[in-house]
C-alpha cells in the first residue's frame, strides 16, 4: 500500500528529553478509514509520541507522513490546516471562556465562516447536551462534559485525522462508554482516529487496529480484536 493511501505513517520515530530517550524507533500506520489505538501504561511514552507526531517534541530520528506529505517537525498550527487535530491530555480548555468561545477557537485557522457555522451545528448534533449551554463558562462543566467540549473543539477545525490523548481517564464508566461511542460515531463521519489510552478494554473495543507501547517502544501490534484475545495483553492490560 502506498504512503498516500494512509492517513498517517510514522517510521522509525524517536524522541528524548535531554539524554533520556522517551520513544524509540516507533513504526505505526493508520490506513484511511481506520480507528487505531495505542495502549500503554503510565509513563510508556504515549503523550510523547503524540507530541512528536504534531511537532511539540522534536524527533531525534524518523519521519511522520500525513496523507502522504512529510510533516516531520512541523508545528501544530501548521498541521491544523492540513487536517490534523489533537485533543491533548488533560483537555486544556479555556475554563474562563464560554463553551462557544472554546469551540470557536477550534476553528481559528479557518476563514470559511459560513462552513464554520455549519460545522458548529454538525458538531453540536453530536453533543446535544452542550447545545443549550453555549454561553456557560467551560470550567463549570463536569469532567466528562469538559472532555466532550475538548473533542468538539478539535472537530471544529474540520480534521481528517484526530489524535485523542487518553480521553477517558478519570471518568465514570457510563461516561467512558459515551466517549467510546462518540469515537465510533466520529470515525463514521469519515475522520480517521488515533486513540491513545491506558484503558485497554475500551480502546481495544472501539479500535480496528492496535499497538502496545512499553518503555517507549512498540512491543506488539495486531487487529484490536486479536490483541484483546492475547493472553499476554489480557494479563498485562485487561486484568484477566
Ligand atoms: N517534559 C518532560 N521532561 C522530562 N521527562 C519527561 C517529560 N515528559 C515526559 N517525560 C518522561 O518521558 C516518559 C514518557 O512520558 P509520557 O508522558 O509520554 O508517558 P505517557 O504514556 O503519556 O504517560 P501517562 O499515561 O501518565 O500520560 C516518562 O518517563 C516521563 O517521565
Ligand atoms: Mg500521557
Description:
The protein has 240 residues and is of the alpha/beta class. It has one domain: Rossmann fold (3-Layer(aba) Sandwich). The chain is 36% helix and 28% strand. The chain has ten helices and ten strands. The chain has helices at 46-53, 76-79, 99-106, 113-126, 128-131, 143-155, 173-188, 200-206, 224-228, 231-237; strands spanning 6-17, 20-31, 35-40, 61-66, 69-70, 84-87, 161-165, 192-197, 209-214, 217-223. The strands form two sheets. Strands 6-7-8-3-9-10 form a six-stranded mixed beta sheet, sandwiched between helices. It has a four-stranded antiparallel beta sheet with strand order 2-1-4-5, with helices on one face. A hairpin with a 2-residue loop joins strand 4 (61-66) and strand 5 (69-70). It is globular and about 45 Å long. It starts with 5 loop residues before the first strand and ends with a helix. The structure holds adenosine-5'-triphosphate and magnesium ion. Adenosine-5'-triphosphate binds at residues 17, 22, 40, 42-48, 89, 198. Residues 17, 22, 40, 42-48, 89, 198 line the site of adenosine-5'-triphosphate.
Give descriptors for this structure.
binds adenosine-5'-triphosphate; alpha/beta; 4-stranded antiparallel beta sheet; 240 residues; Rossmann fold; 36% helix; globular; binds magnesium ion; 6-stranded mixed beta sheet
Amino acid at each position: 500500500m502506498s504512503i498516500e493511501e494512509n492517513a498517517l505513517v510514522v517510521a522509525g520515530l524517536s524522541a528524548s528529553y535531554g539524554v533520556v530517550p522517551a520513544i524509540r524507533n516507533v513504526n505505526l500506520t493508520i490506513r484511511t478509514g481506520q480507528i487505531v489505538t495505542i495502549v500503554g501504561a503510565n509513563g510508556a511514552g504515549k503523550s510523547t509520541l503524540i507530541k512528536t507526531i504534531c511537532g511539540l517534541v522534536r524527533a531525534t530520528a524518523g519521519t511522520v507522513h500525513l496523507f502522504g506529505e512529510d510533516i516531520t517537525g512541523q508545528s501544530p498550527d501548521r498541521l491544523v490546516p492540513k487536517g490534523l487535530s489533537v485533543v491533548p491530555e488533560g483537555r486544556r480548555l479555556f475554563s474562563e471562556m464560554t463553551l462557544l468561545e472554546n469551540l470557536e477557537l477550534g476553528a481559528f485557522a479557518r476563514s470559511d465562516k459560513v462552513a464554520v457555522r455549519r460545522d458548529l451545528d454538525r458538531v453540536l448534533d453530536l453533543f446535544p447536551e452542550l447545545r443549550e449551554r453555549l454561553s456557560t463558562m467551560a470550567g463549570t462543566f463536569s469532567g466528562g462534559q469538559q472532555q466532550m467540549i475538548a473533542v468538539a473543539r478539535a472537530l471544529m477545525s474540520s480534521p481528517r485525522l484526530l489524535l485523542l490523548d487518553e480521553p477517558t481517564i478519570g471518568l465514570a464508566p457510563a461516561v467512558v462508554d459515551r466517549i467510546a461511542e462518540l469515537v465510533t460515531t466520529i470515525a463514521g463521519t469519515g475522520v480517521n482516529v488515533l486513540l491513545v489510552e491506558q484503558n485497554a478494554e475500551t480502546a481495544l473495543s472501539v479500535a480496528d487496529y492496535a499497538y502496545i507501547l512499553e518503555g517507549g517502544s512498540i512491543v506488539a501490534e495486531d487487529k484490536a480484536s486479536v490483541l484483546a484475545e492475547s493472553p499476554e495483553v489480557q494479563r498485562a492490560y485487561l486484568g484477566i
